[in-house]
Specification:
By secondary structure, the protein is mainly alpha-helical. The chain has 18 helices and 5 strands. Keywords: Membrane, Signal, Transmembrane, Transmembrane helix.
Length: about 650
């Protein structure tokens, strides 16, 4: 999956807006959608909806009204933009982040960016948004993407606005009190309030993008204040760290310790820049302006690191504040996760009877892992309930969070089986169409005549007969068959290319693109699901290869109209990179184990569950609590469906 990024804070957005505003002065907008090839990050005007791709048409007013209505009733503002393709940057995630920066979007501002021709989209949220990464991801996949597949552009925006207003996936809650946690929470809250107030004071007044260039004096004052406030925030966080360790233990507090260390590094870099500004050497105005901007970027990054971890402990304290209700909620969610396992197991058995083990590598262990994680979740929930009754509310909150994550991962593992089944079926369909296309090439070779063409046609027809049989046989590997078909196609294509008309070549290229894209999308999604499910044990190499695959797939999607041959090459490269990522991730998980662990916490609680516990907590403490803002996605058009009222 694409590397997820947290949207930078307001100060970073302010600095980025300066250069973006200057850039906007020299950009010349296209006159019509047909002339558009790419769009840089866009600037919203008075409307939260921007349709640079021209796809909304008469539905624009309906979409705008729905988006405004959703914001009015929820205080969560969605911004929607449709462009042709993402460009400058071409990465969907960075494009969305820079658009948010350009428009000075705040904590409760959400952005749905859709590249219509590039078939990419991203639903973006700030790090401190009330909807967490899981909610954003589910809205993307379960709400937005089905509409995009039908090219129902208005429906996607309206559904996204409604889902965001409703808080994403509903969760059960409750009320109650637990008096034993109050003393610890008050101590922690006293310190955290200092950090939050410092950060929020910096954020006031930065809701608008920097449409005008600030003076050097303004930058000097802003940078000086930022240095002082960030330094205060780091000092307050160091005090808070002690409270966090006392409440939740060293293991849970370790990410906070790392965040403080990172914030200190940013702060040191910022002070070094300030020293350069204060020395006796004469600096140009542009140098001073650039260094002030870097100071603001460093202080903002320091604040973001601290705020992300502060949010993780706010989440734990929220769980701690109403343990009986949270224990009951997680018990219900684990029941729902349990109910998802049996259908996933049945689906996997059908897949195993149809496809080769090599085609199911990414989900081979999903059912057993889902059961293990469900078991871990249930046992951890029992431990959390025991800790709650014993007054160890910090341990209980950690247990509830771990059980919640275990239930979520159980559901993800189960859903991945169904997704893989859909992907393999799509590849089968594209293979069948590809075989027909290559058969047409063989027929063309026969019609053209000549010994060389006739011999090539006979070889191709023999290969195609074998492929047709293999495509219907049990134990097949669609990816391997696709590779064989590509080789056969290349051979026959070479001998008839010179005799084929330009129109025939264009049709053939389009058929090749769809086959290559379907294979690449399936492989990238399989690698994404595997790495997402086993993220506690997957190293950086596999993640890097997956990021490469995602970028190559995005390139293929953007080139499919303008450069069909380049699109096919990029899609094939994406397939290879995704396969390499999956192979490395498998090696990480099966070779190195999950790593991590769960040491004793306050009150003597010790870890249990072995590698699985380390895996789940590795995701919770190392990634899930420090929420991500969303992922970039691609979708495959579904022209069989149309928008429903």
């Amino acid at each position: 999956m694409p590397t997820t990024t947290r949207r930078p804070g307001p100060l970073a957005r302010f600095v980025a807006a300066l250069s973006a505003a200057l850039l906007a002065l020299v950009l010349v907008p296209g006159a019509a959608r047909a002339a558009l090839t790419a769009e840089p990050p866009v600037s919203f005007g008075s409307s939260p909806v921007l349709d640079e791709a021209g796809v909304l048409g008469s539905d624009f007013d309906e979409v705008e009204a729905a988006v405004r209505s959703a914001a009015d009733r929820s205080n969560r503002q969605l911004f929607v933009t449709y462009v042709s393709t993402f460009e400058d940057p071409s990465d969907a995630g960075q494009w969305a982040v820079e658009t948010a920066e350009l428009n000075g979007m705040g904590t409760e501002d959400y952005l749905l960016a859709v590249a219509v021709d590039g078939r990419q989209y991203r639903l973006d949220a700030a790090a401190g948004a009330s909807l967490d990464a899981e909610a954003i991801e589910r809205i993307s996949l379960e709400v937005v993407e089905p509409y995009l597949q039908r090219e129902d552009w208005a429906g996607a925006a309206i559904a996204a606005a409604d889902a965001i207003a409703e808080g994403g996936v509903p969760t059960a809650g409750g009320s109650g009190s637990a008096w034993l946690w109050i003393v610890v929470v008050v101590l922690i809250a006293a310190a955290i309030v200092v950090v939050v107030l410092v950060v929020r004071r910096r954020r006031k007044g930065t809701g608008e993008s920097g449409a005008s260039r600030p003076s050097l004096d303004d930058l000097r004052r802003t940078a000086g204040s930022a240095l002082v406030r960030s330094d205060d925030a780091v000092r307050a966080s160091e005090e808070e760290l002690g409270f966090a360790i006392a409440a939740y233990g060293e293991a849970a507090a370790e990410p906070y310790r790392a965040a403080i260390a990172a914030a200190k590094q940013h702060l040191a870099a910022a002070f070094a820049l300030q020293q350069r500004l204060d020395d006796h050497e004469r600096d140009t105005d542009e140098e001073r302006r650039a260094w002030y901007g870097e100071i603001l970027a460093h202080t903002d990054a320091a604040d973001e690191a601290l705020e992300a971890q502060a949010e993780s402990f706010r989440r734990l304290r929220s769980l701690e504040s109403d343990l009986p209700a949270e224990l009951s909620r997680i018990d219900r969610e684990l029941g729902q996760a349990d109910a998802a396992i049996a259908p996933a197991e049945a689906a996997y058995e059908r897949l195993a009877a149809t496809y080769a083990p090599s085609a199911l590598t990414g989900i081979a262990q999903n059912v057993s892992q889902a059961r293990d994680r469900l078991s871990f979740g249930r046992s951890t929930l029992v431990e959390a309930a025991d800790a709650s009754r014993a007054g160890r509310t910090g341990d209980a909150a950690l247990g509830v969070r771990a059980a919640e994550e275990a239930g979520d991962q159980t559901q993800v593992l189960a859903r991945a089986v169904a997704t893989t089944a859909e992907d393999l079926a799509k590849i089968d369909a594209t293979l069948a169409a590809g075989i027909q296309a290559v058969a047409a090439d063989a027929a063309t070779a026969r019609a053209l005549g000549g010994p060389e063409l006739l011999a090539a046609a006979e070889r191709t027809e023999a290969e195609l007969a074998e492929l047709r049989t293999a495509l219907q046989a049990a134990g097949r590997d669609p990816a391997a068959l696709a590779a064989r078909l590509h080789a056969v196609d290349a051979q026959i294509d070479q001998v008839v290319t010179a005799r084929r008309s330009a129109d025939e070549a264009a049709v053939r290229a389009a058929q090749q693109i769809q086959q290559a894209l379907a294979d690449a999308q399936a492989r990238v999604r399989q690698a994404e699901q595997f790495i997402g499910s086993y993220r506690g044990g997957v190293g950086s190499e596999a993640r890097t290869r997956l990021a490469t695959a995602s970028a190559q797939l995005g390139q293929a999607l953007s080139l499919q109209t303008s450069d069909p041959a380049g699109a096919v090459a990029a899609a094939q490269a994406a397939s290879q990179s995704a396969e390499s990522a999956l192979s490395q991730a498998n090696a990480d998980v099966n070779g190195g184990g999950w790593g991590g662990g769960y040491g004793p916490g306050p009150g003597g609680r010790s870890g249990g569950g072995g590698d699985l516990l380390g895996a789940v907590l590795g995701g919770i403490i190392g990634g899930t609590i420090a929420r991500e803002s969303g992922r970039a996605h691609v979708w495959t058009p579904d022209t069989s469906a149309s928008r429903t009222p």
